[in-house]
Amino acid sequence: MIFIAVKFTVRPEHSAGWIERVGEFTSSTRAEEGNVFFEWSRSVDDPHQYVLLEAFRDGEAGARHVESEHFKTAMAWMPDFISRTPEIVNVEVPGTGWSAMAELSPRG
Questions:
Q1: Positive or negative: CA dihedral 33, 36, 40, 45
Q2: Which long-range contacts (CB under 8 A, 24 or more apart) does 92-101 make?
Q3: Are 37 and 62 in contact (CB under 8 A)?
Q4: Domain ABM, which positions (predicted)?
Q5: What pLDDT is stored for residue 7 in this prediction?
Q6: pLDDT at 41
Q7: Count of CA atoms in the C-beta half-sphere (13 A) of 13
Q8: Architecture of domain 2-92
Q9: Among residues 88, 84, 78, which one has the least CA distance to residue 18?
Q10: What are the angstrom distances between the C-alpha of 61 and each of 26, 44, 50?
Q11: Which of 33, 52, 73, 92 could form a disulfide with 6 if both were Cys (CB 3.0 to 4.6 A apart)?
């Protein structure tokens, strides 16, 4: 599985509407064959930073994502909305998705 984490720092005037702005990109990516997950979170330390966790079944699925029209469209408009170059971690990991955490589970 290809696992990717990206930190997007958004210009302050666009940060409140970021999730809506990336809505089409998000739904189109989630619909891709080979997408495992594509999830946005907002930083608790920086209100203008969003973290994207995404995974693809394999390198081929990841390559198809980067070649998709919705990816190209997002890359075309995003430079006008971000305040700095995104930071990324991109690794291949064993597994097919989220696993249960062995050290913690709900009581009773």
A1: negative
A2: 92/1, 92/2, 92/3, 92/59, 93/1, 93/2, 93/3, 94/1, 95/1, 96/1, 96/36, 96/57, 97/1, 97/36, 97/37, 97/55, 98/37
A3: no
A4: 2-90
A5: 98
A6: 98
A7: 2
A8: 2-Layer Sandwich (3.30)
A9: 78
A10: 16, 31, 24
A11: 52
pTM: 0.94
- Which tokens belong to 25? 């990109």
What values do phi and psi take at 16, rounded to 5? Answer: -65, -30
What pLDDT digit, counting tens, does each position of 24-74 carry? 999 999 999 999 999 999 999 999 999 999 999 999 999 999 999 999 999
- Per-residue model confidence (pLDDT) at position 59: 95
Interatomic CA distance for residues 55 and 58, integer angstroms: 9
Structure tokens at 48: 């203008």
